[in-house]
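Title: Prediction job returns without error message
Component: structure pipeline
Severity: low
Priority: P3
Assignee: unassigned

Description:
Job completed but the reporter wants confirmation the result is attached to the right record. Sequence as submitted:
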Amino acid sequence: MDLKEIAKVVLLAGGLLLGHAVQAESTVSPAVPYSERAKTAAIYGLGDSGPQGGKVYYVDDTGEHGLEAKAADEINSLSWSDAVTVAGAYGSGWHLPTKTELKVLYEHRNVVGGFAKDDYWSATEQDINSAWIQGFGNGDQDRYNKYSKLSVRAVRSF
């Protein structure tokens, strides 16, 4: 076989392989990474029931992560240290909200509902004797003595 004939065979074989590849591509779905196929994360919106049964009051752009709040306040007003303990007692990441989380909760209070026009504790301490609060009557944030008895609503990030 001379060089010209070898070149024809190589080109013919290459054409056949290319033809099969094009045909196979049209019959097989494109490869999807396992991480994308296994992705079953729920998408949440404001007011939805969250992963632990709270009301969603903040979600990021993906809708997969955010904050949920318990549907109701604690029955009794509590001191700050009792509020921290009670909010954390729900387990699974439930906690007394930070000053920032509580401000966002105030801004979306109508989505969650059930708030009194009272002051609510945050987990953010000002100093050894005081912690930050969020007024749900007037929207102000201030600091209160930790022995004061205020309203409490637990939150959780997801």
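Comment from assignee: result matches the submitted record. The chain is about 30% helix and 20% strand.
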